[in-house]
Design goal:
This protein has 3 helices and 5 strands; from the N terminus they run H-E-E-E-H-H-E-E. It has helices spanning 10-16, 55-61, 63-80, and strands spanning 23-26, 30-34, 42-48, 87-90, 106-110. The protein has a 5-stranded antiparallel beta sheet, with helices on both faces.
Length: 119
């Protein structure tokens, strides 16, 4: 069922504490943790504690939680020292966009120049 933890989802396991992660910040609705394959000097993932396969389905079903992810991303940027120099928030939605874990999540990237366009 949408929103419910999935037994086979890595991020559900991280959100519940069953799989360890280097947590940067946690709220009632989100968990932010260091990416294990960083693409920038600062690379933190922000996930909702509820399970939706991607950002679009999360936003449609629970817009407040989607907004919580953005608020958490800004707080992560401040906490990690990249807020003042600039940072990027990325939601990959679907395999064609590079999503590899099908639990909605945002990437918070910074600490180096981030060129445009990405990819």
């Amino acid at each position: 069922m949408a929103g419910e933890p999935q037994a086979d989802c890595l991020f559900c396991k991280i959100a519940s504490g069953k799989v360890p992660a280097t947590v940067v910040r946690e709220t009632d609705t989100t968990v932010a943790f260091q990416d294990i394959n960083p693409q920038a000097p600062t690379h933190v993932l922000v996930i909702p504690k509820v399970h939706y396969p991607d950002a679009a389905s999360l936003a449609a079903a629970e817009p407040r939680v989607a907004a919580d992810i953005l608020c958490a991303a800004e707080e992560v940027a401040a906490k990690t020292g990249i807020k003042e120099t600039g940072f990027r928030i990325v939601f990959n939605t679907g395999a064609g966009a590079g999503q590899t874990v099908f639990h909605a999540h945002a990437h918070v990237l910074g600490g180096r120049s981030l060129n445009w366009p990405p990819g």
